[in-house]
Amino acid sequence: MSADAKRVFLNYDQQELDRAYDQSVWAPQMAQLEADDGLASAAVRKIMPPLTKQYGPAGSDVIDVFVPEGARAAPILVFIHGGAWTRNTREDASYPAPTFVGRGAAYLAPDFGSLKTVRLPQMVESCRAAVAWTIRNAGSFGGDPGRVFLAGHSSGAHLAACVLTTDWTAHGLPRDAVKGGFLVSGMYDLHPVLLSSRREYLHVTPEEVVEFSPIRHLDRISCPIGIASGDGDSPEFARQSDVFARALEGMGRLASRTVAVDANHFQVPGRLAQPDTDVSRAAFRLMGI
Fold it and tell me: What keywords does the record list, in alphabetical order (predicted)?
């Protein structure tokens, strides 16, 4: 920061903070990496077509279900895709399915709208509804309703973390309805995000900043959570992962802290598609598979 620049957050001036939340600065090949995920997902969907189910009333309230053949009481991972709350769909998040199905688990990926069509609170509610549907309907596709886990990447990790603060008893489900979370390169405090250039498309009220900042609701978290990020993540995504991990550790809820080596923001979730990486092994340990 130059001597005459004004600090906006911590030691960042405005330009530095904007850069710290702009993944394209730290991963210039961002568009190609996201396209590669889409291509890999299309190949998976061709080889092992998912069941696609409606979990809510909106047209976007659909969820893909990948299950092992002849599954009975299989553990379940629900994966919330990323894309700055504005890009990608469930069809771009199929690429980890073979890894989890190969370990005997069901892998589910929902759609939930985007900031282009709905506001952030509705996206969170849709993700909650997708998880609640999964728990209530697990038996219909060979899953175990008592072993449901939640994961997400980037903005999807933020949404997943919000879901992990849910009072499930208010939804007619057990308090420990979700048995664990695995959050990859996410944002857990919206305050600095809204100070960055992301405020141009993320429009939330001051009350919503508090409500949808999971680190401010640690008392609502009732399950172990694994935190992963990449050594090539942007500074703020790395810092947010570290801060949230330390907070979880302090309350006895941190299951693991993984920093993927030689991986930028868009390469870390790809490690879930490989069964022998630090990232996938941390997820397997969390799920007990």
Answer: Hydrolase
